[in-house]
Amino acid sequence: MRSGRPLAALVAAIVGVMLSGAPPAAHADQPAFVVNPINHVDTLIGTGTGGETVGEINNFPGARVPFGMVQYSPDTTDTYAGYDHDNARSTGFSMTHASVGCAAFGDISMLPTTTPIGPRPWTDWEEIAHDGTEVGVPGYYTVRFPATGVTAELTATTRTGVGRFSYPANGQPALFHVRSGASLGGNDAATIQIGQDHTTITGSATTGGFCGKNNTYTVYFAMEFSRPFTSYGTWDGDAVYPGARSADSIYSGGYVEFPAGSVLEARTAISYVSVDGARANLAAEGERSFDEVRAAALAQWNAALARITVAGTDSGDLQTFYTSLYRTLLHPNTFNDADGRYIGFDGTIHTVAQGHTQYANFSDWDTYGCLAALQALLFPAQASDSDPGSPPTWSAATHPRRTSPRRPQHRRRLDHAGVVARRLHHLPVRRRARRHRDRCRVPEPGAVLAEPVQSGHRLPLAPRRRRRVPPRAGLRGASLGLRPGRIRRGQRRAIPVVGAAECRLPGDRSRRPPGRGRPARPLPD
Question: Which of 207, 227, 386, 427 has the fewest C-beta atoms lying within 10 Å of its C-beta?
């Protein structure tokens, strides 16, 4: 096992959280600060297994942007989280993913191939090459299919996935399968409609049941090709229907054919509102080419990761740091359409306030003391929008508990009963970041906001008001060291931060200057 000292030295070199501007200059005797952090991220890390002790890791390597609705990524057979680097049998690429421990997502699967349509295309897979030609970087993924000669490239925007598929000029038909009834958790319903214009496919998939819960959601899609297809057909899990344009079955799917040797671009948008919402999301992205979308995604990731600038000489440590930081920005995910609409727990369509975003897919496993604080520090606007309101409106075990007229909740969250109480720690941090962020002194562009990590501090929060907490499953006051059903008056919470801006929250009567509290624990050897 590698020593923790080199990585600790790298972390100790963290200079600050950069709101904007160029990284600070390094002294002549110090290593230079990282300018392009995306060069130190490998999205294939964590996509295999960690041996008998760790087991499956379940990270996904595909294309997405920070907090995006789409996670456009490859899938392999018999994998409940989508992708396993030790498995070469690929079912193609799908639009939604999460690094989870139960079957989930994998919605709207597509497979480029030259293999002729067989009697059971809903079970087809092709071998992919896990070699040096498989590359995963922020916002871009590429892999090739050795048996068919197809090369696939993926990139993404917030609500769309853009794929470029290069077929060999060997006389074999360039086929493209689309499976609406292939979600990793199974489907309660699925539809597909092949457009009369010979360039579009639309449809939907209803799925859910995450970790045995009974919630479901429906995701809609709109797909557009860069050139017309020459033939088409559908299937329903029982038979293939050449020339058919629609299917409605839990195993629904379809195929389209292009001339041999085609280089095909496919743009796919999703929506949790309607097919029209997916079409509007697709239109909102404009007519940018694959390369333009890829460049924009890389720039977006570079800006996001550069919020923390580090210096170091060990390339392995830099890769570990920035790949880990990259993983913290994958969830939660945008849930509303480009026009602001999203579906609530009440089954009706709501519209998020202009300038804000509705988010979904929150992980609460031990994130209250690290991920929540980090996201609130680096991305206060996004963290604020992630706040679901007071405890009665939080979802537990993926079920709605109570809706609020102020903030009706969405229906697609991956929360668990038993960990909901932990949100009592970190969501107030996000709530305060939203309500009081303008009270903080914002540094000038290029200024360093945080001190070196060795002098990390604790920022005291305001006393909490008395609030009734319904004694529901997963919300036990005893688990927080409180009397059941109550949070004590005057109780104080504190979050560890790497330094602090000059910020006082209402009700904080502490005379200590901000950032001058109990020092953080020393870094481990």
Answer: 227
Closest to 178 in 3D by CA, of 239, 259, 258, 94: 94
Nearest residue to 394 (alpha-carbon basis) of 433, 356, 371, 368: 368
The CA radius of gyration of the chain, in Å to the nearest whole number, is 24
Contact 222, 200 (CB under 8 A): yes
Q: What is the 3-state secondary structure (H, E, C) of 164-203?
A: EEECCCCCCCEEEEEECCCCCCCCCEEEEEECCCCCEEEE
| Domain residue spans of the chain | 51-298
CA-CA distance, 274 to 349, in Å (whole number)? 10
Over the chain (525 residues), what is each successive 10-residue block's mean pLDDT? 47 43 62 92 88 78 96 90 88 92 90 94 93 95 97 98 97 95 92 98 94 88 98 94 96 97 97 98 94 98 95 91 94 95 89 93 75 87 73 37 40 39 47 47 38 32 41 33 36 33 38 36 39
Q: Which among 19, 54, 524 has a CA at the least distance from the CA of 307?
A: 19
Element (H, E) at 291: helix 290-305
Closest CA to 422 of 462, 367, 378, 384: 367
- Measured CA to CA, the distance from residue 167 to residue 261 in angstroms comes to 5
- Measuring CA to CA, how many Å separate 54 from each of 32, 51, 58, 172, 201? 35, 6, 11, 43, 41
- Distance between CA 71 and CA 98 in Å, rounded? 8
Measured distance CA(9)–CA(82) in Å, rounded: 35
Looking at residue 17, its amino acid is V
User: Which residues, including other chains, have CB under 8 Å from residue 230's CB and lie 6 or more apart?
Assistant: 198, 257, 258, 259
Contact yes or no for 61/136 (Cβ under 8 A): yes
| Rounded Cα–Cα distance for residues 16 and 447 (Å) | 9
pTM equals 0.77
Count CB neighbours of 460 within 10 A: 19
How far is the C-alpha of 127 from the C-alpha of 91, rounded, in Å? 9
Domain boundaries 51-298, corresponding CATH code: 2.70.98.10
Q: What is the DSSP letter of 119?
A: S
Peptide bond into 522 cis (omega under 30): no
Q: At what angle do helices 315-327 and 5-12 cross, to 10 degrees?
A: 70
Q: Kindly state the tokens that stand for 181.
A: 């009834």
Sign of the CA dihedral with 27 first, then 28, 30, and 31 last: positive
3-state SS, 401-470, equals: CCCCCCCCCECCCCCCCCCHHHHHHHHHHHHHHHHHHHHCCCCCCCCCCCCCHHHCEEEECCCCCCEECC
With tokens 């859910």, the residue in question is: 208
CA dist., res. 280 & res. 435, Å (int)? 32
Total number of residues shown for the chain: 525
DSSP state of 227: S
The Cα 403–Cα 410 span in angstroms is 9
Q: Count the Cβ atoms, other than its own, within 10 Å of residue 498.
A: 24
